[in-house]
Amino acid sequence: MEMTMGKIKREDLLSLEAYYKARPEMRLKAIAERKKRTVILGEHLNMIFENKYLMQYQIQEMLRVEKIFEDEGIQDEMETYNALVPDGTNFKVTMKLEYVNEADRKVALAKLIGIEHRVFVEVEGQPRVYAIANEDLDRTTAEKTSSVHFLRFELTQDMIKSLKAGAQLKVGCDHKEYPSHVESLPPETLASLIEDLV
Question: Is residue 173 in a domain?
Fold first, then answer.
């Protein structure tokens, strides 16, 4: 499975039988890829910058677990996960708020309403870009936010040029109940994110 740009197509996917053989190697690669592309803000907020490979792996796993082999089912999974494949001018992120203790999580999610709109990326020397959140469905109620959000960060051509020329990328959150940021990303993380951009 190649790490190329663009959406996942039917021919990118392995049959259930072929995936069964390829799975151990693909799983290790997906774990390494996810680790490299995860940015942690503070103690509880994880941002996984998704890419084509991670979504391909996710689709293969869903097809395997659900034993899906009909075209319609495969098409549904592709549509779901292709929404999280970057388009060349953006980053697509799965944001997770993780609390070990159930009671702590309840309190935190009630305090963190709107946090998904206060997460940002900032290319050195450029204005902040706040997330466009949950385009598929709203995950926040009047009482609490969700522990999982799907975010899109749209970058301008100037931002993309700057990143490719060596600018740093700051990732942060300025929600009043969860101010946190990472000033600069590890080189391998930044290099991997730049691969998402055209």
Answer: yes
